[in-house]
């Protein structure tokens, strides 16, 4: 009988050696944990909502009180023409305030998927107390409509802003579908009354309105043409309507040509047409830094070539992309020579931005309170530069999505 080497005998202990989990198994486990966590959060929110049902009378009074704030009333409505009639309605800002004070509502926006050139997005609003949910699923193509044709968006920031802008309109519709119509109508009526009761002299309000419209390429003559009389004859009710139109133009809901005639017959028609086309192509709804580059390019070409401003703008319209490239080159050359193409740093501006962000942080990430904190900042934000407003708005959007 041959000798056996007992040192090499494998001894079975009764326990199975665990195998390393595969990557798909780990990923599946993480997804399962995430789904369980999300379900637990929703169930907890619904239990809390049903245990603390809304007091509709108290909610109604809070909404009326919020609509007495001038800063909210000024941004509460939009307007645009359709079929020869003026269509008005509540903006997303008013819808957010309604949802906040009505209570037990959650709403938001999700980018479900992104493919080359488009995003699939879901907007929703959910009444946790009644378990009523409204969903809008839609596709956003990554293009910007322009008079010269569609332009594909490649910048992450441009795509984000486009998706957020298109999505907020659907979120507004979802919220308004959950809140009773009489509550919404009462809020709109209170906002109009707030604007009509403005104690500021109407002459000052008219001057401020003219300045606000001029930033959007609408001059005094165009305003008077729409009203049918001189601005000195404006009544408070007409100022309310102009406020709605300004809000729609600023948010991109409508275009200037929807409300105003962009050219006048008679003297100066050709020059006005060139000015309007140049403004539409290069300056309308652009960031302050972009506007400054374009204006600097016009000034530089005027000084170096002796061409008239009208001729420069006319040539720029023949090849807009080439003119933009020239503007970038001029701005780069100015920067390299020590001339900064942006406004000088101002510690006071930085401080104002930080103060606004600190105010938003007081909401402690509560998405129901954030809109109210945002509305309370409108007076302060109105005094900021355009770039500073964008910085604060981006921070608010990050908090709402976080």
Describe the structure.
It is a single chain. The chain is globular. It is mainly alpha-helical and 402 residues long. The protein folds into 4 domains: 59-192; 198-261, no CATH class; 268-342, no CATH class; 347-401, no CATH class. The model is unreliable at 264-272 and 339-344 (pLDDT under 50). Strand 3 and strand 4 (118-127) form a beta hairpin. The longest helix is centred in the first third of the chain and has 29 residues, at 23-51. The protein has 17 helices and 7 strands. Strands 3-4-5 form a 3-stranded antiparallel β-sheet, with helices on one face. Helix 4 (92-102) packs across helix 5 and helix 7 (202-214) runs parallel beside helix 9 (236-251). It starts with 22 loop residues before the first helix and ends with a helix.
Blueprint (SSEs and pairs):
Layout: H1 23-51, H2 56-66, H3 70-73, E1 77-82, E2 85-90, H4 92-102, E3 105-115, E4 118-127, E5 132-141, E6 143-144, E7 151-152, H5 156-178, H6 181-196, H7 202-214, H8 220-227, H9 236-251, H10 269-283, H11 288-305, H12 309-318, H13 320-336, H14 347-361, H15 370-375, H16 378-382, H17 386-401
Antiparallel strand pairs: 1-2, 3-4, 4-5, 6-7
Helix pairs in contact: 2-4, 4-5, 7-9, 10-12, 11-13, 14-17
Please state how the strands of the largest beta sheet are arranged side by side. 3-4-5
Largest sheet: 3 strands, antiparallel
| Number of separate helices | 17
Radius of gyration based on Cα positions? 28 Å
Tell me roughly what share of residues is in helical segments.
Answer: 55-70%
Query: Average pLDDT value?
Result: 78
% residues in beta strands: 5-15%
Number of domains: 4
Spell out the helices and strands N to C. HHHEEHEEEEEHHHHHHHHHHHHH
Say how many strands there are. 7
Structural shape = globular
- Low-pLDDT residue spans: 264-272, 339-344
From the N-terminal CA to the C-terminal CA, the straight-line distance is 76 Å
